[in-house]
Amino acid sequence: MSEKNIQLALFGFGCVGQGLYDVLHHSEVLQADIAKICVKDPSKKRSVDDALITFDKNTILDRKDIDVVVEMINDTDEAFNIVSRALKNKTNVVSASKKMLATYFEPLFLLQEEHGVALIYEGSAGGSIPIIRTLEEYYDNELLSSLRGILNGTTNYILSRMELEHKEYNEVLADAQREGFAEIDPWLDVSGADTLYKVCLLAVHAFGVILKPEEVLHLGIQQVSFNDIRYAREKNLRIKLIASAAKTENGYRVFVMPRFVRADDELYKVMYEYNGIEVEGAFSCKQTFTGKGAGSHPTGSAVLSDISALTYQYRYGYKKLKKLKKQLGDAYSTTPLLETDFAIRVYVRYENQDQLSLLDIRHVVEEYRSPSMNFIIADVGFQSLYVLKDNAQNTLFVCAID
Ligand SMILES: NC(=O)c1ccc[n+]([C@@H]2O[C@H](COP(=O)([O-])OP(=O)(O)OC[C@H]3O[C@@H](n4cnc5c(N)ncnc54)[C@H](OP(=O)(O)O)[C@@H]3O)[C@@H](O)[C@H]2O)c1
Prior knowledge:
The protein has two domains: about 5-130 and about 295-330, Rossmann fold, CATH 3.40.50.720; about 145-295 and about 335-400, Dihydrodipicolinate Reductase, domain 2 (2-Layer Sandwich), CATH 3.30.360.10. The protein has 13 helices and 16 strands. It has helices at about 15-25, 55-60, 75-90, 100-105, 105-115, 130-140, 155-165, 170-180, 185-190, 195-205, 225-235, 295-310, 320-330, and strands spanning about 5-10, 30-40, 55, 70, 90-95, 120, 145-150, 215-220, 235-250, 250-260, 275-280, 285-290, 345-350, 360-370, 375-380, 395-400. The strands form three sheets. The chain has a six-stranded parallel β-sheet with strand order 3-2-1-4-5-6, with helices on both faces. It has a six-stranded mixed β-sheet with strand order 8-10-9-7-11-12. Strand 1, helix 1 and strand 2 (about 30-40) form a beta-alpha-beta unit. Helix 1 (about 15-25) packs across helix 12, helix 3 runs parallel beside helix 5 (about 105-115) and helix 7 packs across helix 8 (about 170-180). The model has no long low-confidence stretch (mean pLDDT about 95). The protein binds NADP nicotinamide-adenine-dinucleotide phosphate.
């Protein structure tokens, strides 16, 4: 890109788009102009000059003078259309849309390679925490063994308040919705699906594996009760919704589920809407990154950082992905990289014993029954947990134990 101000086209002017707009106007270094903003709803009142707004994506995508398309919309398929068209036009793209990126990762990777353009997306996982570029660059030659993270601020906020205020899930969720910490439809956050898309993206940059989000287990916090939190407190533990990605001899164990976290764990201290990611490498040992994982300005600042990186021709090298693809050759797309055949120790709270027959229980370590709650701690076949994924009928609360 030349010395002139770079020309940005924004898609979306909601939470993230407006956050970017604000941080851009506070940036003293980045020389960038917003050429146009594409949005959807003509009836909405906007805080910017009408001349900047368009409702027709083609008026932007057909322009030759746009240096960077910044995609921040909440429609997965339309976001994919916009981003792929921009890449085919050889326009660099910044995106924050984790669901779109994780769902369409393979074609988006191929488009970048084919057209020699950049698609970068630091804002899509961990909000303001610069984790993707760190995994991509800093841990380039490092033998990374695992990463674990709290990647969703809404669930962490709910769990923190339940614990500190001794409240039940529904009460805190309703408060969080009133305060803007949770969506009116909170499913994406509380089911662990939002965390799932993020961990799929992190797995690409940590290990070079492209996983299909629908094949990765995600269990959420919808069934958590204050009884579970009290049990954790008695053991000096905290319940967190944890994304895990670890390399093993047999593949990659990647999943999202509630987990008891010990007091000496760095993630234990990550409270309220904050996110935390712990990365473990053979030589670097454990390192933890924390920060605001979402929100208008934190995400806007990650998007701004990506735009700035494009001014010095930054793009992801995908070295680990390319190395793995080379190693496996044609078998890359057919090799089952996701490891699901192992046992995991879990706490399962249940209402009646019959519910436990859903799970492949291999060894019961502890059993507790009382009029107020029943639980077991057991080693269960990991694959059997998939029956609980997206299962609206499920009332079991399952939480992993180290
Ligand atoms: N919010 C966060 O903290 C956060 C953090 C990280 C990543 N993200 C991701 O960033 C993306 C945007 O999130 P958000 O929270 O900013 O969403 P949002 O507040 O709901 O705003 C969405 C924006 O997208 C626009 N839009 C929707 N469909 C469109 C279309 N077909 N063409 C043009 N514009 C369209 C909407 O237009 P109107 O204004 O006309 O409705 C709106 O401006 C999502 O993928 C989200 O997952 C969000």
